[in-house]
């Protein structure tokens, strides 16, 4: 590496790592990427075109440990041997989001939570774009924030942030922070300590000033408890199902959504929302409050909340086959997310569960399963926990592949039923990602029509 330049090493090559590399290169740094796995042809072609040095299949520790700073991709755990080596040498580790924030003054609307992040992020972006604001998606959606800051800047970024991305953010600041909920998730990454996970989520409040705004679900016990123990200078705009003290958004007695902020006072019939289910009412409240902070016209906000088309893999209708509705909710990778999906079901349901368990407690969904689910199809390599927990309460069929799972669902369902893929688990035992799981599920279901 050139000793006259800042040495930046990026560990993990994907959308985040590649974007960080391009921004670092454009800022005159000496950049090197390292990935212990195989780099996809798409990102390899970008790196070669940009003339950025990289390695795959191993880590050159000598080169990595010569870095002035490390950007760690969110998917790389702290327990990885290379990260332990870096930490032992006290080399600073930051996230791609932290790096990007150093080189832009654009407004940041940042969304986190255990469930609903993607829907709310896309809904906020939809409202802002509908009103003519130059807003772009970033974080877990779309092009990396670092790449956009380097090559395609925008006035506003709507950024979905996982706890993994928040872990290595220090000086980055959200202008608007949205926290939807906190339920157990990724506990395997946080030493199975819920408070560690909560602390990671609340890093979204770092560096916020009295000019910034924190939007949060007022009925979430974990959020409200944490707020008793921390302080923030940000203005608080809580939302709730029913009006409570200081609620900025809620549902009134006429079943209308009410939004009350210092700059906006408006209502909208709940029936006009594009998205169904109570969880989507909360997502719409969070998105509407965020939009109110940009002094948008009330009609712009109402129209956008009414015509939003939804998110792939989140309660996505796939097909109606012989009177059975098939729903893809592959993005439900934790128990609470499945709870919201079941809450929205209005017909007898055959539920597909399974995948890589992250320390799940299935008791949260048991009452809904007992009321709404006629059978469970377990789809995964290790279904013992699901079978043992649910078998005393509902018929459970154990499968270890997608084809057998869909076949079982077809046998168990009849006209008037719903088949719901809402797995509660990560996808990595049988699939590359939850997107891969959802798309392959949709392909298999649609093949039943042939």
What is the end-to-end distance?
A: 58 Å
Query: What's the structural domain tally?
Result: 3
CATH architecture of the largest domain: 3-Layer(aba) Sandwich
Radius of gyration: 23 Å
Helix-strand makeup class: alpha/beta
- What percent strand? 15-25%
Strand order of the largest sheet: 7-8-6-9-10-11
Shape: globular
CATH domain class name of the largest domain: Alpha Beta
Low-confidence stretches: none
At the fold tier of CATH, the topology name of the largest domain is UDP-N-acetylmuramoyl-L-alanine:D-glutamate ligase
CATH superfamily descriptor of the largest domain: Mur-like, catalytic domain
**Average of the residue pLDDT scores:** 93
Number of strands: 20
Major β-sheet, in short? 6 strands, parallel
In DSSP terms (H or I, runs of 4 or more residues), the helix count works out at 17
Helix proportion range:
25-40%
